[in-house]
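Homework help board

Subject: predicted structure for assignment chain

Our instructor gave us this sequence and asked us to write out the predicted structure in token form, then describe one feature. I got the tokens but I'm not sure how to describe them. Can anyone check?
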Amino acid sequence: MSLDASDMKDMKMDVESESGWHVGGEMNAFYTDDVALFSASQRLSLQEDPTQPVIQTTGQGSSGVFEPVAHITRSFQSSWGKTDLTARAQGFVFTDQTAFSHGTYGLQLTQTLPRETVFRMRYHYGPHLFLGNHGPDELRSSDRGGEYVTTHFGAAELERKLLENVTIRGLARYGDRSYNESFAHRNTRFWTLGTHVMWEIKPGIGLLVGYHYERGLADGRHNPQIGEDISYVTHYVEAELEARVTDKLTLIGGFDLERTSYTSGLPGDDFLGAREKIYQGEVLVRYQLTEALALSVGYLHGRWKLSYEDEAARINTVTVGSLFRF
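My token output:
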């Protein structure tokens, strides 16, 4: 569960309402006991990239991780309403297991419209993410070794306030995941449809609930000689409760559930009839030290289970972070 300013979820601070340039950032420090699952667990979020690639090489050790984030926004008024153009860069820097270090980059356009409506367009680019090393007896591919994936996707959202305390959002996205040559049969194109509901239960207490349906089609379905097809259908649900205890102290708790059914029809494929279930929970405390600086501490626990594996993989992560803006 990663938290986003537009939903009560991202621990980024809201961009100021006036026109002009606004700069902000974060610096978070983590300790995780599974480096292979860490990046996917941090993106298990409605407005991130919750349907990460299948990860078969779990249990590769622990590490400290630093996450620097920088974003810059240009805000201006037009005849349509307020417009925000935002560029964002994020990194995960592993102190051990440094092969897992990587960055992601994004652009977003947010346009306010009449009748309390907001439209967003977002582009996400995540290059050369290391997923792990495979042993010689694991895959049907003739080559073994490191698995890497590059992800591109574009997303569009339309958000509308239905009642004084209820807002609904629709999401659609389309993208692809491209793997290195040894795993090119896993190259996947995907599309997603989702609905999010935000309910302000009472001042200071808000609930976010969302659902995504996603379909992914892998190149392996056209290559029966390779014998592996990771095409899938995924259902993803998230619920998050945020409570402002005092003017400065906020508590956030969330739960994520993801179920993936692989649709391979290739005889002998490990993914024939396979399913994956992911459960993840997170708690976080945020303290607004000054108007421009907030501090946070949190804990995440997740469970990832492929049906053909004997045991579930588990991840535990502790985080300490700061958020700032200018």
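Reply (TA_rk): Your tokens look well-formed. For the description, you could write something like this. Residues 115 and 160 are 8 Å apart (CA to CA). That's the kind of observation they're looking for.
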